[in-house]
Specification:
Shape: rod-shaped
Number of domains: 4
Oligomer: single chain
Length: 459
């Protein structure tokens, strides 16, 4: 009996000790979690209801907490989203204002490498750049073509490309038709002289016959042929220049109107530039231009726009524009490739900003105005001519306005992001934020719990 009692007491003592150990282990597991929960509550309480302090005037005013993933969800107090990420605090000086301005901290400005410049009036170098080709001035081309048939007896200029002077002999020809006309003229002149004492009718007939022979030779443009006894007629160069074409060969027969020589005066040449259809309105007659030839890269030629052709190439959508320039040294040759810059802006001062200051969104152009204290505002502008170092601004800003020229794309992207988020997340005031995030309480029982999907079914 004693032995049974002792065994029962031993079992009871062991059970009591085991229960005490289990309770202690469970209590120890729960204390850190409770302490952590209380600490988070204290922190949240400190964020939302900070006690007044002497430095309260310098504290940033908290508006609300927004979802870290950009979802339309706000909270008046700190919380975590379904993935355990902390909500982001939004302060009054961080939120975009009604004008669309965005504030960037000094540290971020330095990190982004923000650079600025002021809008100023200046002469714009808005040269229209295109390409062209050198061509001979059509008004300075001269053809040498006899008006009668004959044979070439002798050549005084025998090669294409030879330089010639005005009045220089080119070739001599023999023409039976010309010889007959010369004989007829001599006979008519003899009759005219012998009819001096004859009756007036005979004298008038001789005079008319001689005049008809002279007119025939004049129509053939044979200089000195009227009194010449030589059967050969020499043709001379009509202008100073070079021989572009020479079809003459000694002994060759030619017909009336055959071009024997083509002479061109190259002291002035043309450059035919191809201007795109959308740029035609910028080109005006009389505008100056600069021509660069690949063969002479360090020798720019000054030119002037003299004609805009009334045709357009349907395949390339370009219109030929004629430029005229001097060629005193004979450096320019027909067919040379030319780079052309036409000064289309003139010398008037225009409101300009650096090209890097303009952000082209596709349907509009924007610059970032510097408002001071780290604030930047996107401002739509209307641009005009584009130059090498500046862009003309027609509307949107004024002289002296400061604009961002570097890192403007990053600031504009941040501004657009904040503006987009504000349409979803920014309430009108802190009170409205609390109203949106109002909590509701109820009692119920949990039917099921799904840890994997982080959901619960409550009734």
């Amino acid at each position: 009996m004693n032995r049974s009692l002792k065994f029962t007491l031993a079992v009871a003592v062991i059970a009591t000790i085991a229960a005490a150990l289990g309770a202690g282990y469970w209590f120890g597991r729960q204390q850190p979690a409770a302490a952590s929960t209380m600490a988070m509550a204290d922190a949240a309480s400190g964020d939302t209801a900070a006690s007044p302090s002497p430095a309260g005037k310098n504290e940033r005013k908290l508006l609300y907490y927004r979802n870290p993933m950009g979802l339309p969800d706000t909270s008046p107090e700190p919380k975590k989203d379904s993935m355990g990420m902390d909500y982001i605090a939004v302060y009054e000086d961080d939120a975009p204002d009604d004008s669309g301005a965005v504030k960037v901290s000094p540290a971020r400005i330095q990190t982004l490498g923000v650079k600025t410049a002021r809008a100023e009036e200046r002469t714009l170098d808005a040269a229209l750049r295109t390409v062209g080709r050198v061509e001979v001035d059509e008004r300075r081309i001269h053809d040498v073509a006899p008006r009668f048939e004959g044979w070439i007896e002798r050549l005084q200029v025998s090669a294409t490309g030879d330089p010639v002077s005005k009045g220089q002999a080119l070739f001599s020809v023999y023409s039976p038709e010309l010889v007959s006309a010369q004989k007829e003229l001599r006979i008519a002149e003899t009759l005219e002289q012998s009819a001096g004492n004859a009756d007036p009718v005979a004298r008038e007939g001789a005079r008319r016959l001689a005049e008809a022979a002279r007119e025939r030779l004049r129509n053939w443009k044979v200089a000195g042929a009227a009194g010449s006894q030589n059967a050969l007629v020499t043709f001379s160069s009509p202008a100073t220049g070079v021989v572009l074409e020479k079809k003459a060969i000694e002994g060759m027969r030619f017909m009336a109107g055959t071009v024997i020589y083509r002479i061109a005066d190259l002291s002035t040449v043309w450059v035919i530039a191809d201007v795109y259809e959308q740029d035609l309105a910028r080109v005006k007659l009389g505008e100056s231009a600069q021509v660069i030839i690949d063969a002479f890269p360090g020798h720019p030629f000054e030119a002037k726009v003299t004609y805009l052709y009334p045709t357009l190439n349907a395949a390339t959508r370009t219109t030929p524009v004629r430029l005229e320039l001097k060629n005193h040294d004979g450096m320019l040759r027909s067919g040379m490739f030319a780079h052309v810059e036409i000064a289309t802006a003139g010398k008037a001062a225009r409101l300009t900003v650096p090209p890097s200051a303009v952000i082209d969104t596709g349907d509009r152009q924007v610059v970032l105005l510097v408002l001071g204290e780290g604030k930047y505002k996107p401002q739509a502008v209307k641009i005009g001519l584009r130059g090498r170092e500046a862009v003309e601004i027609l509307e949107g800003i004024q002289v002296g306005d400061e604009v961002v020229t570097a890192a403007n794309f990053l600031i504009d992207a941040e501004s657009n992001l904040k503006a987009a988020l504000s349409t979803f997340t920014a309430p009108q005031s802190a009170e409205s934020a609390k109203a949106v995030a109002k909590l509701y309480q109820a009692q119920g029982s949990i039917d099921s719990l799904d840890i994997a999907s982080n959901t619960a079914s409550v009734t």
